[in-house]
Structure formats: C-alpha cells, structure tokens
Fold this sequence. Notes:
CATH class of the largest domain: Alpha Beta
Strand order of the largest sheet: 2-1-3-4-5-11
Oligomer: single chain
Low-confidence stretches: 34-41
Radius of gyration: 24 Å
Shape: elongated
Structural class: alpha/beta
Number of helices: 11
Amino acid sequence: xxxxxxxxxxxxxxxxxxxxxxxxxxxxxxxxxxxxxxxxxxxxxxxxxxxxxxxxxxxxxxxxxxxxxxxxxxxxxxxxxxxxxxxxxxxxxxxxxxxxxxxxxxxxxxxxxxxxxxxxxxxxxxxxxxxxxxxxxxxxxxxxxxxxxxxxxxxxxxxxxxxxxxxxxxxxxxxxxxxxxxxxxxxxxxxxxxxxxxxxxxxxxxxxxxxxxxxxxxxxxxxxxxxxxxxxxxxxxxxxxxxxxxxxxxxxxxxxxxxxxxxxxxxxxxxxxxxxxxxxxxxxxxxxxxxxxxxxxxxxxxxxxxxxxxxxxxxxxx
Length: 318
C-alpha cells in the first residue's frame, strides 16, 4: 500500500519512506502498467497522433479532440509522429503507454503495417480523414472526390478554362481522390487538363510556394489554380502577389479544408469547408466507445463538405 501511494504521488508518506521506495523502484526497473491503471479507474485512454505540426488544420483537430475528451471523461495521450524515426514507432509508444484505442490521421490511417501491429496488440483504431474507408475499420471521413468536384465546377461556372491544379502528398489517399475529382469534372465539362498546369505539392505551405512558382513564372499560365489544401492555396496567393498579379482578376485561387489560414490571407480564400473540429470530436467519441467495447458505438461517419465562396475567385479577365 505504501509503494502504491508513492507511485501514484499520494500524500501522507514521509520524505524518508518516499526516498526508500523510489530507490527500490529504480533498482528493480519497475514501470507502472498504464493499461491496468486505466482499467481500474474506468478512464478510457485514447491515443492521438498528428503527422504535420505546421498544418493549419492542427489547432481545429486538437480543440475538437480536447472538447470531446473532456465531455466523455476520456484521457488523451498525444504523440507527434515527426518525433520518431518511423510512424510505427510513434504508434508503438502510445500502445506501450497503455492506450485502449487510437485515432490515426493521414497517412497513418491507410498504412497496413500499422493496422497489422494494432490488431496483433488488440488495440482498436479509428481512421481519421481517410479517403479510402473500409467496412471493417471505424472511420470518420469526407468525400474528397466530391469536394474536389465542387471546387472545379465552381471555377468552370465562373468561366475558367485554363485551370491549374496542385497535388497533395501522394502518400495520402485524400490527395489521390482530390486529383481524381478535379480531372473527372474537367473531362465532364469537355475541358482538357493541361499537364503543364499540374504541379506536385505535399500539403505544406513550402511545397505550395515551389508549385506556384512553377505554374506562375511560366510564359503561359492558368487563369485559376485549385490547390489541394488551404496551406498550398495560401502559398499560391503569396507568390501571385509577389509577381504583381491581381487576385482574383488575373488569377483565381481555390483551396480545400477551410482552415484558419483561409480567412486570414488577403483576399480570403474560396475553399471547401471540412468540419475538422467536429470530425476530431467524433473520432475521439468513437475511439472511447471502442475502448469500452460499446457495441452501440458509431463505426462510420461521413461528414458534410460545403463550398465557401470568398474573394479569391472571380470570372477570368476577358
């Protein structure tokens, strides 16, 4: 009982006894069993990972998760993937810490190696923002393909024909589906996709700068650019301003996600709103249900996307 009080940092233990117990713990290499502790207390410990610390999505993602964890009495253990040599190492750290369920963001939510490891450990997972949901895995997602079609139709309706596209990180299923949606909508409108107007990106502001320079410094450039997320769209706006281009009169810009950056750049970005905070809250609630073996827990949620027209898009200059 005394050792337990020391391990759990309870009061009413003398400094001398506490010192002796800590010395014994160090000598024996004792490590508390976090899973057993969570089981005793009834608290569902949920693992939460994030892969891009610079993403403008991160704040909404974390705030939605915190809100739901507080409401449901769950405990979040948060781990940044870049702090580890591999994504699997980050997942393993959370499992060893005793989490009873885990929320996997892109691209971890599509990684078969990670799911194989979690299944072997008996830790259920929720795929967050995957574009390839599977019936046998809990998931919270949006229709990235349809979202890209919404933005492309918007630009076409304004009169744009020469539309550029900046891809996202190819390891993300969302990037592939957004490009597919763009290309399909262009084809349905009878418009050819000029491959000179398609540039590689990585869902980061820096990659957006590089892609925008490629598209806008060329002798012939598009009248509109659809970037696969807001961070890259904001970078396009910065490059356009640097080149003296008028947005949107000389260049329309569309993004995806409706992150805070979309309404802080000038002009504000037309984008596709993805309810990240609500999705994160739902994912944590689903994970808590899986951790508690709740048969009534939600397993699949398709969140609603909305086109948000703002000042960064207009009809092309005639």
